[in-house]
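Record type: monomer structure entry
Structure origin: computed from sequence
Chain ID: A
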Amino acid sequence: MLFKNRFPAILAIATLIITLSGGCVPEKDQTRSQLKQYIDSIRVINTHEHQRIPAELQDHSYNFYTLLCYSYINSDLISAGSPFYDPELVKQGNLDELWERHGQYLDFSRNTSYYSHFLEGFRILYDFRDPYFTEENIPDLSAQIKENYNRIDEWYEEAFGKSGFELMFVDQYWNSFNMDLDTNYFALVFNINRIVSDISNRSALTAEDASPEQSTYAIAEKEGFVIQTLDDYLAFVDQLFDQFISKNAVCIKNSLAYSRTLDFAYVSYERADELFKRPSSSLSGKEKKELQDFMFHRIIEKSIAVDLPIQIHTGYLAGNGNTLENSQPTKLNNLFLRYPDARFVLFHGGYPWTGEYAALGKMFSNVYLDIVWLPQISREAAVRSFDEMLDCVPYNKFFWGGDCCFIEESAGSLEFGKDVVAEVLAARIERGLMTEEVACEIARGIFRKNAIRFFKLDEKWGIGF
């Protein structure tokens, strides 16, 4: 195959460069560098993003802090003691005041993987060479950011080329029923959080819901679909599935661990029907969970019928404060046993439960592992746990995603992911655990080939291996 034949050529070129320069590079570092060069040649299928479509932020004056406040570093700043961002200051682009409020906390975060991968994105896309973000260099970066986002179509084409992306899967959890995406860059993901949570909240059209206009009931009403019974609700969910499939959706996404446990017990239709008939205000927390559990089981059954994989958030929860135990991967074990024909993709290495996460991927033929976001959470944890995963799990079961809101952070995320994979694979080559040829095949699988095969992108999108 083509990619198998390219590694020796890359190896020869890299060796020649080292020889001509008179450099003396340790063999282990040479292997890693050569493998990284091969990985850089791969056109990447990015299996998870949250790209913010610029039209949604039209009232912003794009600047460094526009991107920063949507980035993961923001959580590290708050962890360090920073106040929350004032949206008006960010929109206005008052850089001096923003630095005065947040600059020292940005400095305190210079050691974290969140900071480093964000910085890496600007190195790749803006040729930014300073070692850190400073009060002095942020204004120039802000001017470049503003210029780029004023020519957004050209900028995305340029950024995709520089980063090496071919396609991104986009989960719009904040606007989960939106089906309009630019298919030049993005593939649609069907986020089912609202469908699961709304079944237990029939008052979701009222002010008690954080965004009632985005509720399942509100969307149904706009489409002239009246929901009075559980069967009505299920029929409308079927209709939503049909609509997303017609828009070439590639998968389903469950990130409900942010609001509830991943323990989804089996609940009968009769019990769910009984609960749905009651006012939602009369339901206890346990009864609401029963309805939600029933709904997710129905969604899994539907996913089997329409052949859509299910991505599930496991492990660390973004932001500053939540119930970490909600997201423990083994809470899903009953689903994997009950639905052997469903295809599950677990996210984020299950960090900090990376061993449990790997074990599930090893035990179940229908459980796949996406190391999305893990290198950003902790690069070193990603190196250790990915090495362990390779001991356990066949390599056709891995994917990579960025999990970012803007292309700048996505570019840095990809670089971190590539670097982790190159380091682990190179060490395995040096230890005699695999050949260079197999290492290349694993890398191409993680960043491209596995996703094409698993999500059937060759059939649905005409994307070749």
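Annotation 1: Residues 407-430 form the longest helix (24 residues).
Annotation 2: The chain has 21 helices and eight strands.
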